[in-house]
Design goal:
This protein has 15 helices and five strands. The protein is α/β, with parallel strands linked by helices and 362 residues long. It has two domains: 128 residues, Response regulator (Rossmann fold); 211 residues, Hypothetical protein af1432 (Orthogonal Bundle). The radius of gyration is 34 Å and the shape is elongated.
Amino acid sequence: MDNTLHNNNDIRILVVDDVEVNLIILEEIIKNMGYHPILAQSVKEALQILEESDILPRVILSDISMPDVDGFTFCSMLKKDLYTKDIPVIFISAMDTASDLSKGFELGAVDYIPKPFDKTEVEMRISTHLKLYSMQKDLEENNRQLSIVVARQMEKLRIEQKNIMTALARLVESKENVSGTHYRNILYNSRILAEGMQLSPKFEDEVTDDFIDTIESSAGLHDIGKLMIPDAILLKNAPLNKEERKIMCTHAELGAKTLMDIYDGVEKNDFIEMAIDIAWYHHECWDGSGYPKGLKGKEIPLSARIVKVVDVFDAMINERRYKERIPLEQTLEYMQKKAGTVFDPDIIRVFMRIYRNFSGIE
């Protein structure tokens, strides 16, 4: 019993009324219920109490007709403030017309206690709204905890998805490039280029922090379709002939469709959707001369346009089984020359300013 009273006494109920006798009556009722009454004779005084108090009242009882600021205005102020908007407001007044009641409820009040006060009625109204308030807070906390659990599970699923895809991407690299530097360079350099683009007025709206994090994760899947290309073509130590080149070009669409099949029936997220875009369109060209769709300009997803620049640059400056490395100066000259045909010219302008920060440059 003592513990209950102690717990109840921690529950504060604010009473606002300019008539002192009303405050005395309600104070006594609230004390007898085991709760802690806080009294204010004006809205100004009540607002000061709320501002200075570390513990908010669980319920506010407010008169309607008061000098300076009335109860309706007070209720409206409470509901507009994020700090106090959830506190139940019960009007206490002799004004009980339908219009008064309607206005009070429209402003966010939850109940009405008429004057003169009936002790039992006051106790029942306060108890009811304390229980409802407590239930609401419990529900909000349960929902918050559930959201945390769901978010953790979703994040775990996304990490598992990325790990699986990373393993597949590394499998491609192990066949094409034993050191695996191309994969790492694509991830890192895609992020660096995107970060540089974020500072450009042309891209600042599209290239958000989330976009940068996502492209760093998904760019490594750009060539996943090469898993379906015959080894005789994929591992050939010489330039491909026309027919072999045609088969090699199918890796873009094969990669995108593979990712779509893997995630068929699974709720899509930014990582998956961007990975599909990159796999499908990173060989498209700005002037429409690329493959597999012949898209041009901004028809090509921005993520794919970024990875195209990064992919071509890294392929040119590093040795492959079928070619020698191309000197950096010559590579940069090619990149600039192809701006507006092969590459997005605005991306190339950013690239030329920040390429020195790329990995893979000797």
